[in-house]
């Protein structure tokens, strides 16, 4: 972060010390979006929504059930396993993930005050933009 830049901070209140603290180093602060970020996140948001609509209809299975599953298993970034019925369905979800990753790779880690690209949480940032109604 540089002097003069604008950022969105998520704070938690410490009642004992009567102070506010950022909720996380790179999860509690995000740059105020510019046109480029908004455009990329709009693309990613539609992909995330479509992928989640598919996954929300699927059965979740535990790690212990993975070996006995005869279906295609998809594991999301949160470690949740989903049963997918067909190879085509699995390929579609993986294709959407790759497109979401491509959107993320259009962003620069330095724009988010980060050292590494993999620390950008595009799904979280898209959620923030949606909550703030930024499109």
Concise overview:
38% of the residues lie in helices and 18% in strands. The chain has 135 residues and is an alpha+beta fold.
Q: Tell the overall outline.
A: globular
Strand % is: 15-25%
Broad structural category: alpha+beta
What are the secondary-structure elements, in order, as H or E? EEEEHEEEHH
The figure for the number of domains is 1
Question: What are the low-pLDDT stretches, counting only 5+ consecutive residues below 50?
Answer: none
What would you note in describing this structure?
By secondary structure, this protein is α+β, with helices and mostly antiparallel strands. It has one domain (7-131). The chain has 3 helices and 7 strands; from the N terminus they run E-E-E-E-H-E-E-E-H-H. The strands form 3 sheets. The protein has a 3-stranded antiparallel sheet. The chain has a two-stranded antiparallel sheet with strand order 1-4. It has a two-stranded antiparallel sheet with strand order 2-3. Helix 1 (35-55) packs antiparallel against helix 2 and helix 1 (35-55) packs across helix 3. The longest helix is centred in the middle third of the chain and has 21 residues, at 35-55. It is globular. The protein starts with 6 loop residues before the first strand and ends with a helix.
């Amino acid at each position: 972060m540089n002097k003069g830049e604008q950022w969105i901070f998520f704070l938690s209140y410490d009642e004992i010390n009567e102070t506010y603290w950022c909720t996380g180093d790179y999860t509690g602060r995000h740059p105020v979006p510019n046109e480029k970020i908004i455009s990329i996140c709009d693309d990613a948001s539609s992909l995330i929504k479509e992928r989640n609509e598919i996954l929300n209809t699927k059965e979740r299975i535990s790690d212990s059930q993975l070996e006995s599953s005869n279906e295609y298993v998809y594991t999301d970034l949160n470690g949740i396993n989903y049963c997918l019925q067909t190879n085509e369905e699995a390929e579609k979800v993986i294709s959407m993930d790759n497109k979401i990753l491509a959107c993320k790779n259009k962003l620069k880690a330095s724009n988010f005050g980060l050292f590494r690209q993999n620390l950008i949480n595009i799904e979280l940032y898209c959620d923030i933009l949606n909550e703030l109604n930024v499109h």
